[in-house]
Design brief:
heterodimer; A: alpha+beta; 5-stranded antiparallel sheet; 18 helices; B: alpha+beta; 2 helices; 5 strands; globular; DUF2849 (chain B); DUF2849 domain-containing protein (chain B)
Amino acid sequence: MYAYDEIDRTLVNERVSEFRDQVKRRLSGELTEDEFKILRLQNGVYLQLHAYMFRVAIPYGTLASNQLRALAHVARKYDRGYGHFTTRQNIQFNWIKLAELPDALADLAEVGIHAMQTSGNNMRNVTSDQWAGVAPGEIEDPRIWSELIRQHTTLHPEFSFLPRKFKIAITASDHDRAAIKIHDIGLRLIKNEKGETGFEVLVGGGLGRTPFIGKTIKHFVHGRDILSYIEAILRVYNQYGRRDNIYKARIKILVHELGIEKFSREVEEEWQHIRNSSLQIDDEVIEDIRSRFTYPSYEKLPHNPDELRQAAADPDFEAWRKNSVAPHKVQGYSIVTISLKPIGAPPGDATAEQMDALADLADRYSFGEIRVGHEQNLALPHVAKRDLPALWKALDKLGLATPNVNLITDIIACPGLDYCSLANARSIPIAQELTRRFANHELANLIGRLHINISGCINACGHHHVGHIGILGVEKNGEEVYQITIGGRADEGAALGNLIGPGVKFDEVADVVEDVVEAYLALRERPEELFIDTVKRLGVEPFKERVYATR
Amino acid sequence: MTSPLEQKKIKIAGPSVVTANRTWDGIVVYRTAAKSWSADLSEAAIVRNSDEAKALLAESVADDVGAIGPYIAPVQVGADGKIEPGNLREQIRRTGVTIGSSVQV
């Protein structure tokens, strides 16, 4: 966990007071909506279909148990008893009243949570690997660098009025769980030949109506130079990024139009002006941030304790363990992913009761720490293996032990037309139907790892372009129509999916996905060949033939 | 269901209402003939041509403290005068999400 200092606390508290005054002036009519809109957006407040939506930041996906309880409290007191975890390590409340928002923010500020950088054309919440600090083989904890960038960019005037929103993600593992290649800037922590810590820097990734996979702009930037290098990228973007057309304003368009070589030269030139400035980071600064992250006092525990061996006889426990439990860097401990994808329920939602109970379980089994991943699941990062059976039983009682992590029912979906004012079509009901179709755990296991991503409009909040199966809802002649892509992926091998054919109606989507999956099962060379690998080997055609032969 | 927030020209093909979200709490409201806002669609003022729609929208926009984001939305008016939303988006805004209970435990 990261411990806030006095500057952080003052900043968050002052922000609440400021917003309270802004809301008061808005409700009295002193501020018009046009004047107020940018202010509310800078505090995570959107207007959606039914009400205001309040988006709260969970920087680099790390939450303390008291913070999760505070989120539960907001859900219960100010909203309708639940929250929705998003694909960028935020949580959204869908029914909040503007008049009560300052109180909700004040309650969150007591535990160091805020809504800065969750909306608007600024530097957004820096995201990272939800297994940061505990994943075996990690270069080092990427949250230290995430926190450095957070501190530098929060309310930075130069980054508060960018051409469009700007998103950074950081990973420190070979396997990318932070989807860095679909971010405006993606950072991969690496060591150079001298053993010094630095970053491979990628730029220009993003989804939406014009998707691009990020390109490497520099193979190694020393850690001490990372702020100046990021700032150089942002300065070039600020100078050349288009402000006349919202659809062409993201940095991915600029990188594409200039070409990575020219963009890179521009950045390099800018960087040479500023790299030896105050933006160069002293080791002391990094060490200070590092010292403010506290890590558990792990016990010396056996690799395979008796409790785990005994529980292995229970097939339900084993099914959960195989999909939800991952190796930890410390012997005797595990990382536990908690599926927020129960069969038939909206992906990523959790009730206040679940959040409270999970906070208690985190205190008991995970040193009071919870993580939030971009796949809309949670994780307990420090669970002793001996405690896994007891934890599983407790999670099962809460409806949080669905054994489907990374399987076909572990679906990423945006809120879609059920909530979102930008959406053209519904996402959540499609996800619900798909989870019912593939509810049989043996079938899901037979299929193996398969990610379905659903977006209700071209803005792609459900990351449909990078789903193994991607589903995009659009409108055609007043009806919801869904385009299906296959072959996308969001990890270190990130790729955009390819369309399999004409769009299909709402009622046909689950049938089409079943056809695609049946084709895969028939076409795969062996059970171990994942869906994504079969698509890579054979291309779209065999799947297209299967789906459209009878349609 | 093109977002009405992106409406550029006011052109209506049938009976329509002006809808928005109430400023202080954000709930869905409809402009009434009494120059007020109501959460009840049956109390909405119905407009049937572009000039009427423009006038109702202009009046609604002017009431910035009462509600935000006003726009024209299609409705269907039954023989008995009952007003129903004219598309899925407005149906969802009126009756709520289509996903059953929010979370299953």
